[in-house]
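dumping this here so i dont lose it
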């Protein structure tokens, strides 16, 4: 899959923008703050329904406008799909596919991309929510229906937490809350599927993660990911959580869905008194983490800056590899946002070689000389929210 044309209206600093794209590599070059990242961010948003820079949508709408519109013409072999998203400052967002109304959560079925940016250092060094988001975005791109499962889980969780807070305020005991059992059943049904899907994904990432890390670093540092599950007693507030999976990475931390559901329900019963005290749900996929290991040690706290950067990049490349393996639409669009400025010459060259086989690669850079020559087939200059020049590398 590749993007043939990208159109933006009132998105970030763009009043209007039209960008024609081709297979192969394209470099978007310009000084910082001109709008390079905004262009690639919009493609990533269509694929994941989220920005890698902000948690809400308000910042995506240009100042003074009521809505931003992102349109992408996608090429899937001989087939063309026009994906459109209207991001509203107020109210729900709206989507279209080939000019027919659609739900925004339908877009990841057609738009696949993997974006790596400096913010991704937080995958290794940041909070559990960052790692949960990495897994969930990949899950939704591979199985878009899971967006609905995750949305339903969030709604049930919110309702359950509201009930717990109300009970705490009124001084009620657990046995005075018969409706809590109903919310528990729904939470367990939805949450168990999310847990099982995440654990299975972590297992699938093992091999491509190791291959991607070696391709960048040329060293076997044994990168690994292990699930850390709150239903098994892990506390995300712990500074150094224990992994829930065996060291060989061949088996997940859970068995069949039924076994997961049983453990989840047991955890909720065990936590009920504490939950009433705090007014919060203390077990479930919203409290889980993924432990990143390098040479058997937690990368968070032990890995150097360079190792952390390489680990995060390897996770993104492994994600791209999984998408290209099982997607009927072919390769995802691979986006590298301001990546090469952080790498030395050798790692730049190794990264360029590792991604050479992807159908479409989009690179942003403040300095063109930072980008390896094999990725400069086409160069687009960006200035103050305008596409001012497009050229072939040999022009």
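and the seq i came up w/
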């Amino acid at each position: 899959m590749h993007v043939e044309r990208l159109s933006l209206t009132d998105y970030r600093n763009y009043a209007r923008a039209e960008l024609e794209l081709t297979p192969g590599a394209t470099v978007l070059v310009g000084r910082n703050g001109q709008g390079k990242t905004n262009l690639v961010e919009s493609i990533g948003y269509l694929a994941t329904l989220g920005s890698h820079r902000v948690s809400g949508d308000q910042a995506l709408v240009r100042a003074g406008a009521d809505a931003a519109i992102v349109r992408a013409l996608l090429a899937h072999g001989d087939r063309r799909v026009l994906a459109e998203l209207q991001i509203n400052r107020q109210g729900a967002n709206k989507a279209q596919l080939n000019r027919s109304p659609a739900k925004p959560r339908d877009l990841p079925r057609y738009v696949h991309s993997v974006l790596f940016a400096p913010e991704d250092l937080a995958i290794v060094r940041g909070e559990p929510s960052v790692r949960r988001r990495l897994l969930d975005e990949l899950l939704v791109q591979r199985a878009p229906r899971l967006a609905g499962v995750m949305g339903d889980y969030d709604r049930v969780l919110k309702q359950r937490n509201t009930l717990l807070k109300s009970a705490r305020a009124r001084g009620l005991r657990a046995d005075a809350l018969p409706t809590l059992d109903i919310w528990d059943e729904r939470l367990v049904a939805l949450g168990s599927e999310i847990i099982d899907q995440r654990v299975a994904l972590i297992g699938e990432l093992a091999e491509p993660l190791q291959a991607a890390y070696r391709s960048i670093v040329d060293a076997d540092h044994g990168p690994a990911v292990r699930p850390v599950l709150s239903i098994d007693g892990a506390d995300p507030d712990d500074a150094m959580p224990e992994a829930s999976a065996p060291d060989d990475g061949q088996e997940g931390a859970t068995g069949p869905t039924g076994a997961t559901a049983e453990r989840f329900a047991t955890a909720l019963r065990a936590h009920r008194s504490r939950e009433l005290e705090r007014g919060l749900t203390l077990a479930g996929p919203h409290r889980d983490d993924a432990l990143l290991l390098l040479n058997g040690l937690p990368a968070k706290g032990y890995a150097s800056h360079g190792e952390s950067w390489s680990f995060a990049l390897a996770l993104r490349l492994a994600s791209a590899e999984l998408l290209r393996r099982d997607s009927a639409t072919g390769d995802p669009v691979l986006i590298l946002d301001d990546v090469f400025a952080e790498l030395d010459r050798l790692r730049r060259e190794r990264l360029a070689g590792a991604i050479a086989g992807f159908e479409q690669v989009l690179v942003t850079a403040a300095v063109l000389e930072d980008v390896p020559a094999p990725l400069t087939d086409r160069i687009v200059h960006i200035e103050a929210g305008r596409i001012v020049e497009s050229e072939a590398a040999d022009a």
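The longest strand covers residues 2-11.
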